[in-house]
Write a structure and sequence with these properties.
Strand order of the largest sheet: 25-24-32-33-34-35-44-41-40-37-38
Strand content: 15-25%
Shape: globular
Number of helices: 21
Radius of gyration: 31 Å
Bound molecules: zinc ion
Amino acid sequence: MFRMARVYARRLIPYLLVIILFILLSWFFSFQLEEDAAQKRQISYLRNRVAELKSKVREYEQDETPRESKQGAYSFAEAESRRFYDKPQLGANHGIDRCNFASKHLKSSAELQTVELYGNISFKNENGGVWKQGFDIKYTDSSDFTPSRPLEVFVVPHSHNDPGWIKTYEQYFADQTKNILNNIVEKLEVDVKRKFIWAEISYFSMWWKQASQSLRDRMLKLIKNGQVELVTGGWVMEDEANTHVYAMVDQMIEGNNWIMDHLGIKSSTAWSIDPFGQSPTVAYLRKRMGFTDMLIQRTHYEVKKVLSQQKKLEFMWKQNWESEDGKNDIFCHMMPFYSYDIPHTCGPDPKICCQFDFARLPPTKYSCPWKVAPTLITDGTVAKRAEVLVDQYKKKASLFRSNVLLIPLGDDFRYDNPGEFDKQFTNYEKLFLYINSNKGLNVNIRWGVLSDYFKKVHERMENSQFPKLSGDFYTYADRDSHYWSGYYTSRPFYKKLDRVLESRLRSAEVLFSLANFLPSPHNAAIDLWKASDSGLLGKLTAARRNLGLFQHHDGITGTAKDPVVIDYGRKLLQAIQNADEVIAASAEYLLLSSEPPSTSKPSSFNALILDEARKSHDSLPEGFVIPVRSLATGALYPLVFYNSLGFQRQQVVSVLVDSPNVKILCHTGSIIESQITPKWSSIEPTSPIAFQSNVYELWFRINIHPLSLSRYFLLPLHTSDVTGAATRSTLFTLRTEKNVDMNFEAHGFTIQPVDPKEFQLSNYQYILHFGDNGLLTGITDRNTLERSKVMLNFVTYGTSSAKDKSGAYLFLPDGPAKSVPSLSPTVVVEKGPVMSRVTVQLQNVIHTVRLFNSPGIDGHAISISNLVDIRILSNRELAMRVDGTELMRKPDGSLKHTFYTDLNGFQMQARHFYSKLPLQANFYPMPTKMVIDSPKGTSRLTLHSAQSLGTGMTSSGEVDIILDRRLMQDDNRGLFQGVKDNKVTPNDFWLVLEKFADSFNPSTKDASDYTLYPTVLSQHANLALNSPMLTLLPKSVWTGISEKDVAGMVGYKSQSSGYLPCDVNVLSFRTMKLESKQALLILHRQGHSCKPSSFGELSPTNCSLANGHINLKSVFHSKNSLQFTEYSLNGITPLNSEISESSVNLDSCQINTYQVKLN
Ligand SMILES: [Zn+2]
């Protein structure tokens, strides 16, 4: 009955569309009567809309007729004559009128905005006395600390254990961490009052694994009685600048669930003392995971100072989009001083505080740089020493509001020998005894864990008594003009590898979970899914942990020693290989389940492989070349494509073939238009570009449903058989070097001359203009026919000639960037019906710009790839310069000196150029995008990035993206080396230029001085770039399948009805428990702009808006009955009872988590 209704509804759609079309046409004609310029633009939108609807009608009509094999219907000549693809088939983009979230959430109600703090501070770096970066703290002993409101001090022992930095994760564990954790058990058992906090679960789980059962039991007892607290409980203490929300969430899930599974507890307080700058995304994620309190340390010294002066170091951290109710606000404690070591945690004077680090009691490996060593606390000295210490405590307490004081007591890898524990514990216990028994001091002091401190603060004060703050804490400076903006790019090769792993792991998680919820097809090997270390879930777990490890603040930051970087690299590669294996096996399982049994072979789950592999962690991926020439005529070579995203993708893909004589069929048997291009053999910018013989790239468009697999077929052809054969690109060589193999004609390519002054590439959406050096000079939007001056260039930064120079952490340039000489570079232009590109070989970089003739997202983006090699440079940083200053010009001629970068691929932050700050302070992390938005909001240029890099605005308004950095010296932050292990590094971008009419409703405002909302198209472009379509190939060629059999072999389609709304992304679908078939479905409803662009209102992905309403059952088509329960983001705490009817509503900008269980 329901099915019948759907069929009728579907039949009605064309007629409904025709009615809408009629209404729009009426509008169109009524508008045409007026000559107003602004309305003309609206008319052009309507015209587009009409065309879209027309094509939509055509699409539905096509869908209604059963598809016969259309082989040959689409001739070669026809393909070539169609310069551009049909008008994009935009989907049912209704619902835009209900959309007004962005315009109402451009700034939170918080009284503190970090953008304003940076704007108001004068950054004078004035000498504050003993607290050099602060001020002289005064307090009145008699009135500030009284018997009724004494100072409550919690001394919190901790040991900061980096999972990789100077030594590898395993080396640290063997040398130090294992001892530290053993000692914690020994020394805390001595006295129930002794306490300790621990953060890194990567280490804790390693210790647990090798500990005896009795040692585990003793540790567990200490944890259960509150002596040991696991703070944050992430796999690592993650970097907050370069990390992507996917990996941030994943490493927390991994750590938090390890704790729950092994210890039966959950963490509620978070501790982030070492990441180099702090992100509000972390605050949000912690809150969504059920945390109530968090602590941060590394923020700009001038920010610490001003917040100290105003007693605002403790605040409710609020997201900029968050509404009044503050349900995602989290209590945050910012440490006031320079460092988390003991000299900088007892009070303002490090010279005094160092004397209370009893690990530095001589004789010892540690000393006090202030030249006064600690002395043993004895009955004779305790009174005097206590007085000195309490004075520091009271000064520090004066910076806070509650008379509750947190005194962290530890440092990097501290407490690794029992003697150190004894020194700290026994000396402090003498001081505690004295202080507590001298009531006149009005101080209660004891050992504490982090939550003891927060609990006491909350006992004394309501959260409403603290200020609210919104924004982030970038860019961090710890002293002088030492801005930590170098690590946004350091070791970019591994930042890229990290992003590749994230996308592979996410793809593997989604496919594995889909497969796990399906009944076993054809009695296939169910053993595959069994939970064991060698099983697929074991492989996924290992991959999750390796990805998690790299999120550490010396991992993805690129701030570890060379051998440690190699160790991380190997672990990333292993994780990629694990994920690839899971993808291939899961894909095969799903394909078998949707295939008629007659065509499926008995499977060993070993039939498919990904189309690329890496020989080593530091090499580039190499594509598998399909052996077309060895295929029998008429043999079918299946290609399986996998779309891991929640929206439909029409996209251009490519595979490598050893013969240009091929054609591509889709599952209906129709011929798909394809294009053959040469494969360039040069992979290093320093060696000449050459044509690789017998390897070609085959480009074609595919169309895949959300979260689905689709099957296409490649057929070898005789050279005489041209029906449906791939079109060879036409080549244009602007300039070549002598030693370049340009013998294209021998390979069947046509060469045409080109005007060296200016040449163009075009697709349906853009005309790109290039200068004679092969670099982009302008973009014409084909919908509005407006040409915008957008120029790309390459520049280099040197390093300061002063004593302090750039290194792994710091960016200390020697002034503005210099242009890279680009005289007469080799430029090759290729054009064809599917893809066009220009390849430029510059010094230190091969720069490729591509345009796709595609109705999908990729047809709306300009693909930019740089292959960077700066190994011959010395103390240089190479940057790609995006000059969009013309777009940023205000009517009065001045420049809008603001741009936007994302935080963790999760939200956007405004970046104002500050001329009062040095160049390096105006650089920010760019994990996934950089946006410049014209003053009137009529043009928006977005650079989507497939890797984390640093970006900054120059004084003249261009935006530089640092691609790689080679630095010959240490920058004095403990690493003791430069950054000289540069690799040939790929980095990929999509540039999207969106045009908006200026006459639109102000209620569609989507950018402010604080934040910005990208369009749905932009959100989808970002996801598509960062989750590339995956291609799977058969390990051996299938035989016995005829071309006729192809029809109907669709692949695996995950959804039976209802796509996800446009603004909802499947962040992860993560199997937690195999036997009980439990997975976490993590959905992110992205906040987006409601301004219709010249590309249309939403996105060419067949999606619609639904006001956050989702029927979860319709998302994951399953014959079995699924049960959904909402959970905290870490999958630990159920928030509600089971969701009946599986209907849920998501709020904009929120991440919601559902446990999916098979009934
Ligand atoms: Zn650290």
